[in-house]
Amino acid sequence: MPEQAKAEEARIKALLEGWADAVRRHDLPAILAHHERDMVMFDLPPPLQCRGIEAYEQTWDLLFRYHKPGTAFDFRELAVTAGADVAFAVAIMWCGSDSSSNPIDKDGFLFRLTVGLRKVDGDWRIAHEHHSLPATD
């Protein structure tokens, strides 16, 4: 892998780690800081999709009702693939009372995250965010 691609992937990982840290702190301005104004998100709870930064901002109220500041919102796995001006990341994350590795812990859950990014004026911006859980019977 070329050094430039490694450097871009490291920048994106740092951006996403910063986003997760902002979620743990309930720092809404920092959560929104690297998102495009016209971003699209597919989330765990309804609605089916949200479009635009204002709609995305409103989705955090629901999580913050159940997720206390300082509570786990942690990457378990994170892989990034970066091109010159677009990139994507796939991750397994833990959201819960601690960083328990037990996926059936009643105080938390594992979920999947996919993020699409584009480079704008030299900075990576999140254009798409998709959170999901495996389907159950």
Automatic annotation (TrEMBL):
Residue span, SnoaL-like domain: 12-135
Sequence intervals crossing the membrane: none
Record's protein name: SnoaL-like domain-containing protein
Lineage of source species: Bacteria, Pseudomonadati, Pseudomonadota, Alphaproteobacteria, Hyphomicrobiales
SUPFAM superfamilies xref list: NTF2-like
InterPro entries: NTF2-like_dom_sf (IPR032710), SnoaL-like (IPR037401)
